[in-house]
Amino acid sequence: MQAFIVRPFGTRKVLQKDKTGKQVPIDFDFERVQKELILPALDQAGLQGGTTGNIFEAGSIHEDMFSLLLVADLVVVDISIHNANVFYEMGIRHSLRDKRTVLIKCPGFDETPFDILGYRYIAYNKENPGDAIPDLLQALEETRQATRVDSPVFDKLPNLISQDPERFLVIPDDFEADLRVATVQKNASILAIMATEISGFQWYIPGLRQIGEALYALRCLQPARTVWEKIIEHNRNDLQANDRLATIYQRLAESEITANLPESEALFERSNIAIEKLLAHRHDLTPLKRAESFALKARNAKALWLEAWKNVPTPDHFSAAIGSTDLTIAFETYEHAFMECLNHFYSGINALGLLITTITLAERIPEVWELKFRTTSLAKQELEGLKEKLEAIKQSVYYSIEAGKQIIGENDDEYAWLKITEADFICLTETRPSRVKLSYQNALKGATNLNFDAIVRQLVIYQQLGVKEDNVKAALEALPAISLSSNKIKVHTILFTGHRIDQAGRPEPRFPPEKEMAVRKAIKQALQKEQETINGPLVGLAGGACGGDILFHEVCEELGIKTELYLALPRDLYIAESVAIAGPDWIDRFNKMYTKLPWKVLSQTKELPAWLGKNKSYSIWERNNLWLLNQALDNGGLHMSLIALWNGKGGDGPGGTEHMVKQAQTRGAKTIVIDINMLA
């Protein structure tokens, strides 16, 4: 988050009463206050910021000052003395933004102006300003998370609308171009790197939004989660972030439900919390968005309902299914979603399906159904009420589908789902199985973007619970067979990093050519141990530098492990930078590898993107390491190992083996170090 500091500059002559009550001039060093109090507190709070002093040299001081007062996430104002510039700038901030202004003051000098009298400030002593760091730090943390208005203007005029700073922030064109290219390439690792690289820029949050949307569209759930949660850290009530996270948490919960039910339940609850935050602003949402939000909450309940009975032996699973309260919650929430927007046929068909399921089970095992109620008569009364509701929902869903045919064009992606929904409706309401089969066959004609797994899984639920059995059987005959196993084996990635062959005349040998066979043997032993340990498919990732990288690819080929080649630069430039120093034999080995393996290139030049600005501590080689690491972590740290050929020391330049090892360790990756010093 970005902070802006508003304060007097330099050392000022101020009046202070002495012991006799006489006003005497003394020096007040405001530079010291910033150095010893404000900046340390901002740093400990994870905030970056400065004053207008940072932009004097740029020329357009007023424009920049007004911009910073508008877009800064938080403003710290020192009101210790009557300074016209300070109060002018504070007034601008209070007029533009309703929250996140922190006041500080050294008591004993000028009186606080009437207009802000009574508003909280953090007191400090100008002789020892650093003593107030804990108080200011606490105020910064509280202000960052607070929803309370701290602007007197917005406090007294509550109908005023605070400005959205993102409306005034310009994202660099070249950043957006790089984002588009990475999205088309489906390069989630680059997108994840960009999300960390833009930290500290004024346009950080809108930049994160674009990255988060790209990752969400690519269904890269974990990196998308990380990006949207950064936006939530900035504003926990952000509508777009809560909307995206509600779905992301839900999808992650479904993927964990078999292997780790407690974690899955926690993710479902996170999803529900995000939905509730979204719906707290229901008047800012369209009817369709409200329907989608309630439908997602219903889907969460439905997933937990399925978990309650899917592993229960037959016929006890019927009782488990009708006895679960999540069935009722799922139905009622889908029904609510449908009532929010009758054009939302997805929620309507789901409400209808769960209602028919409830009625079917209640009639099949009335003794279990009746246990849900205080008396048998109440149970029968409720069942009759559900049957009456069934007729109404049938009619509503029918007309929702018919309306959809008028609204949605046949070339629209949603049209195929509308036709499947119509087939689902026929399956749930028709008495002729042959018509059910025909409806699914017609719906599938020309459909290329359908998730057949979802269609079949829903029909299998009906099949397992004995709902519309003949119709469901006919429907399944019309659909392609799929595997319903939820235990997808994840590929384990082995990432390699290591030293290049020493150039002739290297002052301190590190990887002399005579160690090549010993290094090859050590890499092979490390890979064979991973093969024995990992239960599942393996893939290797590495660069193509002479020495360790090329040896890794060659040994993987011997062991039957597929590898992918990741190059920081295009082939010709890469050879000049990382291969040619070892001589023509290594170039031949690189070319052989290059022609056989799938390869990717990070950048066309050694220069970093212009939107990154000048950063002497960051180069193409650090960026390359992060690119490789993020790619290797695509399936999570549990499914990734790093093999590092390393002498335990710093590298000859940026982005070496030490950098990769440290980055991997901070991400929790299993790290296997081959100490080249111990190889003979």
From TrEMBL:
What domain of life does the native source organism fall in? Bacteria
Pfam families, alphabetized: TPR-S
User: Which Gene3D superfamilies does this one have?
Assistant: 3.40.50.450
Which InterPro entries does the record associate with it? Answer: TPR-S (IPR046880)
How is this protein named in the record?
Answer: DUF4071 domain-containing protein
Origin species: Spirosoma arboris
